[in-house]
Design brief:
This protein is an alpha+beta fold. About 25% of the residues lie in helices and about 30% in strands. It has five helices and eleven strands. A seven-stranded antiparallel sheet has the order 1-9-6-11-4-3-2, covered by helices on one side. The chain has a four-stranded antiparallel sheet with strand order 5-10-7-8, with no helix packed on it. About 30% of the residues are buried. The structure holds fe (ii) ion (FE2). The site of fe (ii) ion has 4 residues, from loops. Fe (ii) ion binds next to loops.
């Protein structure tokens, strides 16, 4: 079964190390996300930093934000050996995520299974989780408040950001 309705890989060009340098020293705060079977002692393990004002201080992030025409930028840090239980993203309907850490585990969509990605558009209105992994996961998220996955997919396709092979697959589903 194709996973096109959950994730679409993007061929966005960026320097991973330079992007990481821009966000690594931000002020991360604990983020309590409602998840299925939420357990405060085990699950308060997700940390978030936001870039709102002064976007020009983060030129690479700002450039990608403008290109993607996203609404909000959030950086997430999930420490090694912690999990994010099954959830739907609370404030956005879809997002482009770029995973900045080297070796990382998959996202797990409840109705599909594990999907590995590095830079992709995700339909975060499907129930998903991030299983525990033995290395930290650092990612930058460009989220859309109201634009649905399909609409963002069309916009990103028009900007040439979806690999051709992927488009053929999407068209078949
Ligand atoms: Fe999520």
């Amino acid at each position: 079964m194709s996973y096109a309705k959950y994730i679409t890989h993007l061929n966005l060009e960026y320097d991973n190390d330079e992007l990481k340098d821009e966000v690594e020293d931000l002020n991360f705060q604990p983020f309590n996300l409602y998840t299925k079977g939420y357990n405060e002692s085990e699950d308060a393990a997700w940390w978030i930093a936001r870039i709102r004002e002064n976007r020009s201080m983060y030129p690479l992030i700002d450039g990608i934000y403008n290109l993607l025409e996203a609404d909000v930028i959030a950086i997430h840090r999930q420490y090694a050996n912690t999990r994010i239980n099954t959830h739907i993203d609370p404030n956005s309907v879809c997002c482009v995520n770029i995973i900045l850490s080297g070796h990382t585990g998959p996202v797990l969509f409840e109705d599909y299974g594990k999907i590995y990605y590095k830079c992709a558009l995700l339909n975060s209105q499907h129930w998903h989780s991030v299983p525990s992994y033995d290395e930290e996961r650092l990612l930058v998220k460009f989220a859309y408040f109201k634009k649905p996955y399909e609409e963002v997919l069309t916009n990103l396709t028009n900007k040439g950001l979806i690999p051709k092979a992927r488009l053929n697959e999407i068209n078949r589903t």
